[in-house]
UniProtKB/TrEMBL annotation:
Positions bound to substrate: T254, Q276, H279, H346, D379, E433, H438
Gene this protein is translated from: hisD
Reactions it catalyzes: L-histidinol + 2 NAD(+) + H2O = L-histidine + 2 NADH + 3 H(+)
Cited function: Catalyzes the sequential NAD-dependent oxidations of L-histidinol to L-histidinaldehyde and then to L-histidine.
Active site positions, chain numbering: E345, H346
Biological process terms in GO annotation: L-histidine biosynthetic process
CDD domains listed in its UniProt record: Histidinol_dh (cd06572)
Cofactor details (free text): Binds 1 zinc ion per subunit.
GO terms of molecular function: histidinol dehydrogenase activity; NAD binding; zinc ion binding
The species this protein was found in: Miniimonas arenae
Stated family: Belongs to the histidinol dehydrogenase family.
Protein name: Histidinol dehydrogenase
EC nos: 1.1.1.23
Gene3D superfamilies given in the database record: 1.20.5.1300, Nitrogenase molybdenum iron protein domain
């Protein structure tokens, strides 16, 4: 079911390795053409497009695009106590993990009276996407909301697809998680249309539940930054609106890469590959190993697990797709080059001396070290964030965190003497750039 790529004995450059690595046919670029008309419709017709698109993609026409406060309160009230405790544990750990990320202001005195400071400011308003197509993601509420709250963001809005079996509102556990975390602005809007709504804002054109006073009112104000995971259409929409707003990484269909040697447990490796394949037929599961014995054993275990797992069809599609493979390498060193070129969203290291191997990885969204750190730990309760870059974006992007919602401002304060000391070099640089008024602006202070 899962294909093999044999790289043994092949010395490839980093660029050649990137091309040799398995990737899905439907990538973010390919989905761009699909999402462009969706974004344009939302920008041009607001709630009309949002309801039409919900009907088309989610199979339900929401009455309330903005979730009423009563529905949030009812969802929290109905939340199963065990699930509430799990969400509270996840929240507490993710909060602690993110508090440690808060950047510190700096002050640099470059000469007497010459000071440059850097201070950190949270963005004003953010749109947080919580997926909800094939699976339901209350854990993504925690990851998005807690990171934004720790950063100090004041305006938080959440969007998640309307569900047929919840009267066109998002899933009740998603609503309950929002209520638990104190989020009051929640939308029953999914996919690329949610990203468009956050980027451009939207007006309500309908009389909601027969109330004429809602016609022509603002449904959603635009945001400064959009974050959150989603399928390939969500990732493509985030790429398309980048610039109008900030985004976190392109956190699209899930990927797991496992770098394992003969010391790894085949049953654990197979379980972890299946665990992430169940997200999406487009999900990627890649094993990189120098042990053909492990590769054979994992394949055998995969066959058993896939037959017994709940989402067999999805898992088969993901494992059987061109984005998944067992990659055979010469040794762990060779394997390191392969996983670095792949830049997986999640990278597990299951080798002897895993911690030392993990330290040498340059590109991965998150690294899971050793036999007792499965990716599903990070998905829920590790204290890290599960919203992570996919499709090779880990070469240049980080996972969601406090910095996704924070920007820095430099503050420059010089005295008269400190400016006088550098006016000569300033004028020299201004003149060489043929911008003499720049130099004159400094000289004017000493006439
Ligand atoms: N990278 C990460 O950090 C991360 C974290 C969690 C989940 N994920 C990924 O999030 C995704 C969740 O996907 P999902 O589908 O369950 O939920 P989703 O909310 O991302 O997508 C559902 C929406 O997709 C839209 N859609 C569906 N088919 C479409 C089509 N043909 N054209 C245009 N729009 C369409 C619909 O509007 C629907 O509301 C999975 O791929 C999962 O792997 C990634
Ligand atoms: N593995 C996903 C990140 O790609 C996150 C997640 C949420 N729930 C379960 N898993
Ligand atoms: Zn997962």
């Amino acid at each position: 079911m899962i294909s093999r790529i044999d790289l043994r004995g092949r010395t490839l450059t980093a660029a050649e390795l990137r091309r040799a690595i398995p990737r899905a046919d439907l990538d973010v670029e390919a989905a761009t053409g699909v999402v462009e008309p969706i974004l344009a419709a939302v920008r041009d017709t607001g709630s009309v497009a949002l309801r039409d698109l919900a009907e088309r993609f989610d199979g339900v026409r929401p009455v309330h695009l903005r979730v009423p406060a009563s529905a949030l309160a009812a969802a929290l009230e109905a939340l199963d106590p065990e699930l509430r405790a799990a969400l509270e544990l996840a929240t507490a750990r993710v909060r602690r993990g993110h508090e440690a990320q808060l950047p510190q202001p700096t002050t640099t005195q470059l000469a007497p009276g010459a000071v440059v400071r850097q201070r950190w400011v949270p963005v004003r308003r953010v749109g947080l996407y919580v997926p909800g197509g094939l699976a339901l993601y209350p854990s993504s509420v925690v990851m998005n909301v807690v990171a934004a709250q720790v950063a100090g963001v004041e305006g938080l809005a959440v969007a998640s697809p309307p569900q047929k079996d919840n009267d066109g509102l998002p899933d009740p556990t998603v609503l309950a998680a929002c209520a638990l975390l104190g989020v009051t602005e929640v939308y029953a809007v999914g996919g690329a249309q949610a990203i468009g709504m956050f980027a451009y804002g939207a007006v309500e054109h309908d009389a909601v539940a027969g109330d004429e006073s809602t016609v022509g009112t603002v449904l959603c104000e635009p945001v400064d930054v959009i974050t959150g995971p989603g399928n390939v259409y969500v990732a493509a929409a985030k790429r398309a609106v980048r610039g109008a707003v900030g985004i976190d990484a392109e956190a699209g269909p899930t990927e797991i890469a496992i770098l394992a040697d003969a010391s790894a447990d085949a049953a654990h490796v197979a379980a972890d590959l299946v665990s992430q394949a169940e997200h999406d037929p487009n999900a990627a599961s890649v094993l990189v190993t120098n042990s053909t014995r492990l590769a054979d054993a994992v394949e055998e275990r995969l066959d058993q697990r896939v037959a017994a797992t709940k989402h067999t069809a999805r898992v088969c599609a993901a494992l059987g797709g061109p984005q998944s493979a067992i990659v055979l390498v010469d040794d762990v060193e060779h394997g390191l080059a392969v996983v670095d070129a792949y830049a997986a969203e999640h990278l597990e290291i299951q080798t002897a001396d895993a911690a030392a191997v993990a330290e040498r990885v340059r590109s991965a969204g998150a690294i899971f070290v050793g036999a007792y750190s499965p990716v599903s730990l990070g998905d829920y309760v590790a204290g890290s964030n599960h919203v992570l870059p996919t499709g090779g974006c880990a070469h240049y992007s980080s996972g969601l965190g406090v910095m996704s919602f924070t920007k820095s401002v430099q503050v420059i304060e010089y005295t008269r003497d400190a400016l006088a000391e550098v006016t000569g070099p300033l004028v020299a640089l201004a003149n060489v750039e043929d911008l003499p008024a720049h130099g004159e602006a400094a000289q004017a202070r000493f006439l």
